[in-house]
Write a structure and sequence with these properties.
This protein is mainly alpha-helical. It is built from 22 helices and two strands. The chain has a domain at 2-49 and 70-129 and 188-300 and 401-572.
Length: 579
């Protein structure tokens, strides 16, 4: 037990404080576990090439192709051109594509892509509003008119006539100047409020979107990996697939997304919640600018079309492999042979073969020879002038977040080590003090603690540390492990308080539109509301989707023991529910 605890404490400290790179910390089990006699090197290394790790790697490669052909920018600009020219709808137009794209791409890439678009929007807003005020100011003060009097004075050279303003006119001009300056100050305050809500909207939408799909964010993948290992240990089918995760993840993600959209309006727009901050002419100019940006992209390129087809095909293969209510294409193969990683790696592999430009035989006579390849130049088995693939390994090697891939493997290895060293049993024994509490209360406590910790360390490291604890606690209390593990994993994505919480937070903070106090003031409410939504959805939708109202007999040594927890769902008055 002490040996396992030493490794866990060492890795947890290094992950949180980043004493050495996170990826290097993730490799510690490879040499420490064998040296301490906990596991063999062969057993440890198996964890770094799990099916779940390959699923995540495949999704990253496909996302890289989407980025390189600029398909994500086209989707984002198209969404922005469809929304109405009002602050709340423009905010929705910024957040929705960010939320949708982060389901399939990394949250970091999504936020990084949206920030230049936001900069362009804000520049256009400032150009069509604040300069108008400045011009109006000069017009009011310097404008010539006839409301003046003539005064005749005597000079050494003779008579002189001067046009002097009336006293009343001077007072009127002073009042107009003060009003104009006040109006400008109000407009500038409104503009700064818009920059804040738009910037926060990007990070919040990116964080919420990753929850929707199994591959949307690393904690979801880490959850699947831990559940697979735990259930296989007892010869059980874990039951979490890409398709059935959508049943829980998509509604939860969308509700959190809508909550953040509404809360940003309530917080910053206040009394102007239902009206425009600026006139329709100004917002019309912004909409026209966005339309021009979209038109500048031109028609979809051949590469964009091919990547879009591959992207849709991959999603269809994931959903139809095992849709639960009918047999999917997975039944065509021996049981357990095909997993979600199979189509992910298959689609990734063919992207290195598919051309980025239409072959010569398929081009029209008036088509020009392509000048700029999508893939960077490197030596391949095909001459560059004859073939340019959608992806090359050089691009993938530069763009893939290898540190996250290693972090997942290190987390799985650490979990294995905890089990084999007896540390998991020891932790579970100490946590039995939570037994008198209702399971939904335990779920809320764990989710709240994880959401607090994930604001100061990476979501992947947080999920890796807390998921084994949640699993052991559930087994000790005879609660379905997924009942506690799902809230723990999802809450690891709820980092809304600090710039260091997630890369999207850091990206929007680096833009200069926000201060830390801005994120803290609004983020604390978002964090609490997100956890409450998560616990509610876990106690209702997740229970129905994954059958969490029963404790598998295999986990209790095939003894017939069932817990009756009539208080599990007081929030929806289901007093007859038992687990």
């Amino acid at each position: 037990v002490s040996k396992g605890a030493y490794v866990v404490i060492l890795m947890g400290t290094f992950w949180v404080l980043e004493v050495i790179p996170i990826a290097v910390t993730s490799l510690i089990p490879i040499f420490l576990f064998p040296l301490l006699g906990i596991m063999s090197a062969r057993e440890v290394c198996f964890n770094y090439a799990e099916d779940t790790v390959m699923l995540f790697l495949g999704s990253l490669i496909v996302a890289t192709a989407v980025e390189k052909c600029n398909l994500h920018r086209r989707i984002a600009l198209r969404a922005l051109t469809l929304v109405g020219p009002e602050p709340r709808w423009l905010l929705f137009g910024i957040m929705f594509p960010c939320w949708f794209l982060s389901m399939w791409m990394s949250n970091t890439a999504t936020a990084a892509m949206m920030l230049p678009i936001l900069n362009s929007i804000l520049k256009q807003i400032r150009d069509v509003t604040l300069p108008d005020i400045e011009e109006g100011h000069h017009s009011d003060v310097d404008g010539n008119n006839d409301d003046s009097e003539m005064e005749i004075t005597t000079t050494p050279n003779g008579l002189s006539m001067e046009r002097l303003p009336l006293k009343g006119k001077v007072q009127s001009q002073t009042e107009n100047t003060e009003y104009t300056l006040k109006n400008r100050a109000d407009k500038e305050r409104d503009f700064h409020q818009l920059t804040k809500i738009f910037a926060l909207g990007i990070s919040y939408a990116a964080n919420a979107g990753g929850v929707a799909t199994l591959t949307g964010t690393p904690p979801n993948i880490i959850l699947k990996g831990h559940i697979d290992k735990l259930y296989r240990r007892y010869d059980l089918d874990p039951g979490i697939t890409f398709a059935n995760w959508l049943i829980f993840g998509l509604p939860t993600s969308f509700i959190v997304f809508m909550m953040t959209w509404l809360w940003l309006q309530l917080w910053y727009l206040r009394k102007r919640f239902l009206c425009c901050i600026m006139d329709k002419r100004s917002w019309g100019a912004v909409k026209k600018h966005l339309r021009m940006e979209y038109d500048n992209l031109g028609n979809m390129s051949f590469a964009e079309v091919v990547v879009a087809v591959c992207f849709i095909l991959l999603a269809v293969l994931w959903i139809t492999r095992d849709p639960q209510f009918i047999n999917g294409w997975g039944v065509l193969f021996p049981e357990g042979f095909v997993k979600d990683s199979t189509p992910a790696i298959f689609i990734s592999a063919i992207m290195f073969v598919l051309p980025a430009y239409p072959p010569r035989c398929c081009r029209a006579k008036n088509d020009k020879e392509p000048q700029l390849p999508v893939a960077t130049e490197e030596k391949t088995v095909f001459p560059p002038e004859r073939f340019t693939p959608l992806l090359t390994w050089k691009i993938v090697n530069e763009e893939i977040a290898w540190d996250v891939v290693l972090l997942m493997g290190g987390g799985f290895a650490m979990s294995d080590g905890c089990t084999k060293s007896g540390l998991s049993d020891w932790i579970g024994t100490k946590l039995e003090v939570l037994g008198p509490l209702s399971p939904w209360v335990i779920s809320f406590i764990l989710a709240f603690v994880v959401s607090a910790v994930t604001n100061i360390t990476s979501n992947s490291a947080t999920a890796t540390i807390f998921l084994p604890i949640a699993a052991d606690l559930a087994l000790r209390l005879q609660i379905n492990p997924m009942y506690l593990m799902i809230p723990v994993a999802v809450s690891a994505s709820f980092a809304y308080l600090l710039p260091v919480g997630t890369p999207p937070n850091a990206i929007v903070f680096s833009s200069g539109y926000l201060q830390t106090k801005d994120m803290l003031k609004i983020g604390i409410v978002v964090n609490v509301l997100a956890v409450l939504i998560l616990v509610f959805m876990s106690c209702t939708l997740a229970v129905a989707a994954y059958g969490l109202n029963s404790f598998p007999l295999a986990f209790q040594g095939h003894t017939n023991t069932t817990l009756n927890i009539t208080a599990i769902l007081p929030i929806i008055s289901l007093s007859n529910l038992s687990i």
